Amino acid sequence: MRVLANAIDFFLCLIEFLIFARCIMSWIVMIGGKNSFSSVLYELTEFFLAPTRKLLDKIGLKNCFIDFSPMIVCFLIELLKIFFANLLV
């Protein structure tokens, strides 16, 4: 059971890291143009961010200056990590 908990925690931490890297790269790409690394980050993280962005659009945060979807997804990932840590340990 502990191995499963560690694997889930590692996967969730990896997703958080990729989302964080995407946010940082979004600032750099605006300056330097597109590259393959930012495209890979986009493809890996869009699966998690797109549903959250659609939900934010429905509640009226469509034309907001800041994209809150990475913060919301990271918050939900933290909740999942706590849930699985308590469930599997």
Structural account:
This protein is an all-alpha fold and 89 residues long. It has one domain (2-88). It is 83% helix and 0% strand. It is flat. The mean pLDDT is 85.
Keywords:
3 helices, mainly alpha, 0% strand, 89 residues
Radius of gyration from CA coordinates: 15 Å
* Strands, count: 0
Major sheet = none
The termini sit apart by: 7 Å
Given helix and strand content, the structural type is mainly alpha
Helical segment count:
3
Average pLDDT across residues? 85
> Runs with pLDDT <50, length 5+?
none
Rough shape? flat
What is the H/E order?
HHH
Number of domains: 1
**Helix proportion of residues, in percent?**
over 70%
User: How much beta, percentage-wise?
Assistant: under 5%
How would you briefly describe this protein structure?
The chain has one domain (2-88). The N and C termini lie close together (7 Å). The chain has helices at 2-32, 36-58, 69-88.
Helix and strand arrangement:
Blueprint (H helix, E strand, L loop, with lengths): L1 H31 L3 H23 L10 H20 L1
Helix pairs in contact: 1-2, 1-3, 2-3
